[in-house]
Amino acid sequence: MGVTDPAGPVMDRDEVDRALARLGAEHEAIETSLLALQDHAGRRLLEGAELTGVTKERWASTEAAITLLWAYFDAYSDALRTAREIRARRRWSSREDLVELTELLRGEPVTLAGSAAALANAPTLHGGPGRLSERYSLSALVDRMNELYASSLDMVVAADAVWSALPARIDLLAAELQRTRQLAHSVGVRPGEHPAGDDLERITRTLARLREQVISDPLAFWVPAQGSSAPGGGRPDTTVYDREARALEDVRREIDAVLTVRQDAEKRLVRLRDVLSRADRTLAEARTARGEVLAKIAATEVPVVSGPPTVLQEQLATAAEYRRHAQWHRLSPLLEELEQKAEEELLRARESLTAVTAPLAVRAELRGRLDAYKAKVARLGLAEDPELAELYERARRMLWSAPCDLRVAEQAVLRYQRAAAEALGGPDASAVPRQFGPQDSRGEP
Predict the structure, then answer these.
(1) Which residue ranges make up each domain of the chain?
(2) pTM of the entire predicted model
């Protein structure tokens, strides 16, 4: 190779030419990257923004790093230009030229003196405290510039990504929020009067605060990608935005329900009046039937029939008042409650009517059973049998007289059945299970 010096063996002409070509390509790539960083929309926004929090701290460091980047690039350019000038002196470089070129290309020819502010904010090559001056080889200077460029681009890209994603989405959601607020106001959903109105106020405040924070401190809403070393690896943190978007959707569904109430309120009120009217008529029928049962059936406990609940009529009047005054947010829950209670009241009235008329149903069943056996006896030619005729007439008088003692009447019907079964030569009628029958207070038939 040649005599060595602090820079190592003296390079020959081919080695010098290859090194200059490589350094020239690196110079061009670095220059292109620095110009792109200089023109990056995120960097321009950062320069003009009033930053706070972690973004303010990171941008101060990044600005110092960009300043150093250009200083390093200028020094690199000067050293490369000097080397090219030395190589251009002669077609066949002399040994002195080669020694000088070796020192430039392999030694530490670049001495940089940084400003106190820049050195205080920008990280050094080795991660230690900055010095007032440092010496670099051209390859070390390239490594240093790549390091500073990557960290600077990472910060700029992250901030720009958050600014590109969140503010526009927040503005769209805020516009939807405004439309929802107007719709809510039209149906009486207001703060302090309805929970959905309070939710809208809270969402409005949260979105305004979120937008302000995103604009001033975008890096607070950046989630770096795990294990990624590429500049800008990560995603915007949309947790708060997503939560408020879901909350607004919930409010919108509730307001839609209120709007449905406004559209269907009259029909639902009419249907409610009809259900309550049917319940009242059924209770009135049960009261009438109870009087009839007490007059026609003896020794039977008949349940008392209560009157229609006045509270439902009062609530129905309140619902009608809400509709007249367009208080849809109040009408909505009241209608749902009334519809459920009205159906329950109609069911109660029907059950009351069934319970009251049960003795009449038992009497009708006994009458049907008695007539069925009489027809069977007549069909088989035993209609003139005096014993059967007497038993039939006794049971008939009991069932068709008022008041009717169902227990005694049932026993009379059973006696007629047994006698008819014996006369017909069939099985004993007592083997047939009873289908109905009133009970006294002791539970005995």
Answers:
(1) 4-159, 161-258, 267-357, 358-431
(2) 0.57
